[in-house]
Write a structure and sequence with these properties.
alpha/beta; 14 strands; 14-stranded mixed β-sheet
């Protein structure tokens, strides 16, 4: 009688151990299969965020489509339609509409907001109270327009500032273009306003207009 009882106990223990091991292995696989939050993808078609640490996809994910920033969101590249309060990107292509559009690289398209900035090139249009870009190839329309490097196009505002050379048309109360350390080459800027400063103009300073 002892042998059958002992055999039954051994089989029961082996069954319980196998079941426990299988359950543990299955749980481990489930944990490994669970996706990490804020995972980095090469690109996605939609992004929503409240802040860089509270958004669907990591800030290194490229957005090709639509991004909604309830408060503040950040991504390396944004292509498409960008809507929100304070969206930020390194490079952006498309349309941005928000309170403040902030791009640290190149912008191609249009920015509409109270404040629009593009630290690199701005190829397109900025419309807002304050517009700032490294260089502009297009138009800036606002109260204050700033282009830090050689630019081409139009500035319409109360104050238009271009420390480098601005080739095109400036219309505002105060217009500035170029300084003594820049070479304008064949770049021409026509200025229409009350105070017009152009180091390479007909005169360095003229009232009403300069060219």
């Amino acid at each position: 009688m002892r042998f059958p009882v002992r055999l039954a106990c051994m089989l029961t223990a082996a069954f319980i151990g196998t079941t426990a091991f299988g359950a543990e292995e299955n749980q481990t696989k489930q944990v490994e299969a669970k996706p990490a939050t804020n995972e980095i993808y090469d690109w996605v078609g939609f992004q929503w965020g409240v802040c860089p640490y509270l958004q669907i996809f990591n800030e290194n994910t490229k957005i090709n489509g639509f991004r909604l920033s309830t408060l503040y969101s950040k991504n390396t590249e944004m292509t498409g339609f960008d809507l929100g309060v304070f969206p930020c990107a390194e490079d952006a292509t498309g349309l941005q509409i928000s309170v403040a559009n902030v791009n640290t690289g190149t912008t191609m398209g249009a920015q509409l907001g109270v404040v629009n900035t593009s630290d690199g090139k701005m190829d397109g249009t900025q419309i807002g109270a304050v517009n700032s870009a490294g260089s502009v190839k297009g138009a800036q329309l606002g109260y204050v327009n700033i282009s830090d490097k050689d630019s081409y196009g139009t500035q319409l505002g109360i104050v238009n500032i271009s420390p480098a050379n601005f080739c095109g048309f400036q219309l505002g109360f105060i217009n500035t273009s170029g300084d003594e350390n820049t070479d304008n080459g064949d770049k021409k800027c026509f200025q229409l306003g009350f105070l017009n400063f152009n180091k390479h103009g007909f005169l360095p300073f003229m009232i009403l207009f300069n060219f």
